[in-house]
Design a protein that fits this description.
It contains 20 helices and 28 strands. It is of the alpha/beta class and 573 residues long.
Length: 573
């Protein structure tokens, strides 16, 4: 008998730093491949002029949005970059790429004169106006940080944001002057005379025109590598947190991968209707401008005005939250059929869960042009559902965008099996660097180098992901986990239901009981008994709501997300 063979030793796991190096190497290879693919597919290569090539060389591969605008100012200086659309077309304001870059440079130079520089934060309380984009890019070039907040903020909210962000200057819309005055009086932010009104000269404040006129003769402010923005989360569960997003070359991979999956091309027109302070508008305006697209700004959303703009400007793509999409569809097939919407190649929707019935109705109305994405202020775009995905599974948020790695973790801290529900964590180069002044919140959101905003999801055998709600919204009734998203999707399949929100209400016997709140479609009627009967055919007993409340309008935050916290308060005895 020969010697007894030794058992094979398990391969030692690689050290963390070696795994990180391997991931980085793979990412570099993928970035080069995807970059070449996107440049060819979108027409970027064929659009580069000698002047544009020179600008690329001068900026040495910097990829922040302000640098890309400078490239287009050299490459296609006379192409229209930005249009601020008026309702009657008489008051439209339009800027070429050259003019837009010149305004950005002027603001950057003037801000330098105010002592604003690298690492400083400046708060923008503005509607969808060109100055929003100009100031954001001007600050980016200085390495300063634009803090973008809702113009609907109350005085106490604005006072908190000014103080929490440490803002050294404030630009506000003239319509918000009363809130601004009260916030400055209530807060402790030290702004001095660095408070500027936009769209109107007001007593006690400097006008933005004064800042532009004070620009020095030398406007060439070199773009900083420290460019960043601070975007405050919507705060549906408490005080908003400021997510700090910086720009880096490695963050380009998920962005380019997203472009590769869509019909975005050079020379198109994008319609921005979501508020610019929101991540959705911010992301898609920058995507459009990176390709040299014209961006049309609508100051606010109204379905008819939205359709008017698509027709008038020959819009190729737009980004809507699901509420906007639903309101447009509610105009009816007769109204939509009279519109020339043939220029549209893509409607992107995200920022809140998309009811599957709305997804199907939208594709039936506009054609297979709907793209549903999932992401967050903190993570960027994580998944994308193409029209083909939505036809197969209209409640899906799609597949992971290449460059993003997703893991669903269970309560035991281990990855769940396929088909099971877990908390969605993502590892991405597009991740924010953290929450401003809140390291504890940053650490609480991390598991190793994966990040979660608290959403629950599952993945099917085709690699499609499905949201099941937020972790803090999960209902435990009689020891059974009930995921609100499943119940909401079942309710949304009823032809009379526009949208549903499901929450857990404290119950002595069951711990929590399932309660649904429903908003009906315009012109439709339905009773609680009819909806409960409808669900009996679709959901198992523990998942079925004990009661359904029908309301005229669900409570929402300014970006369209339903405020479940407010619903629980209203429904809890």
């Amino acid at each position: 008998m020969g010697p007894i063979p030794r058992p094979l030793r398990p391969m030692p796991s690689l050290p963390t730093w070696m795994k990180a190096v391997a991931r980085a190497a793979r990412a570099e290879v993928m970035l080069a491949r995807v970059s070449a693919q996107v440049m060819h597919k979108t027409g970027v290569i064929g659009a580069i002029t000698a002047a544009g090539f020179g600008a690329l060389v001068k900026n040495r591969g910097k990829t922040n949005p302000a640098t890309m605008l400078r490239y287009h100012a050299h490459n296609t200086p006379h192409r229209t970059a930005l249009i601020h659309a008026s309702v009657n077309a008489i008051g439209d304001r339009a800027y070429s790429f050259f003019e837009l870059d010149e305004r950005i440079a002027r603001y950057a130079a003037s801000l330098t004169g105010l002592g604003i520089g690298r690492g400083d934060r400046v708060l923008l309380l503005l509607k969808n106006v060109p100055e929003f984009i100009m100031l954001q890019h001007a600050l980016s070039r200085l390495g300063a940080q634009a803090v973008t907040v809702s113009w609907r903020s109350t005085a106490p909210e604005l006072a908190f944001l000014l103080e929490n962000s440490g803002a050294r200057a404030l630009f506000f819309d003239a319509d918000s002057v009363d809130v601004t005055r009260r916030a400055i009086g209530e807060g402790s932010a030290k702004l001095g005379d660095r408070i500027f009104s936009v769209r109107g000269k007001l007593d006690g404040f400097r006008a933005i025109e004064e800042l532009a006129e004070a620009a020095p003769a030398e406007l060439d402010v070199p773009s900083s590598e420290d460019a960043a923005v601070v975007i405050y989360t919507s705060g549906t569960t408490g005080k908003p947190k400021g997510a700090v997003r910086k720009y880096s070359r490695k963050a380009s991979l998920p962005v380019l991968s997203f472009i590769a999956e869509t019909p975005l091309r050079v020379g198109q027109t994008h319609l921005a209707v979501c508020p610019l302070y929101h991540s959705t508008a911010y992301a898609f305006v920058n995507l459009a401008h990176s390709l040299g697209n014209t961006v049309v700004l609508l100051e606010s959303f109204e379905p008819t005005a939205f359709l008017d703009a698509v027709e008038r400007f020959g819009v190729h793509h737009t980004a809507l939250v699901p509420t906007m999409l639903h309101r447009t569809l509610e105009l009816g097939s007769e109204v939509l059929g009279r519109r020339d919407l043939s220029s549209l190649v893509a409607i992107f929707t995200g920022g809140a869960p998309l009811p599957p019935a709305v997804a199907t109705r939208a594709m039936d109305a506009f054609g297979d042009k709907l793209y549903n994405f999932y992401g967050a202020t903190e993570t960027g775009i994580v998944t994308l559902a193409t029209p083909r995905d939505l036809r197969a599974a209209p409640d899906s948020i799609g597949r992971a965008v290449p460059g993003n790695e997703i893991v669903l973790f269970g309560d035991d801290g281990q990855p769940v099996r396929r088909g099971e529900v877990g908390e969605l964590y993502v590892r991405t180069a597009n991740l924010v660097v953290g929450y401003h002044g809140n390291d504890a919140a940053t650490r609480a959101s991390m598991k190793e180098d994966f990040f979660s905003v608290g959403d629950l999801a599952r993945v099917d055998d085709n690699g499609r992901y499905f949201l099941e709600g937020r972790k803090h919204d999960m209902i435990i009734s009689g020891g059974v986990n009930v995921y609100p998203r499943e119940v909401e999707s079942a309710l949304s399949a009823h032809p009379a239901v526009a949208e549903a929100a499901v929450v857990g209400i404290p119950d002595l016997e069951w711990g929590e009981r399932v309660h649904a709140v429903v908003e009906l479609r315009a012109g439709h009627t339905c009773t609680e008994a009819e909806l409960l009967a409808f669900l009996r055919e679709r959901l198992a007993g523990p998942k079925r709501p004990r009661a359904v409340t029908i309301v005229d309008c669900l409570p929402r935050n300014p970006t369209g997300k339903v405020l479940k916290r407010e619903l629980r308060t209203q429904l809890t005895p």
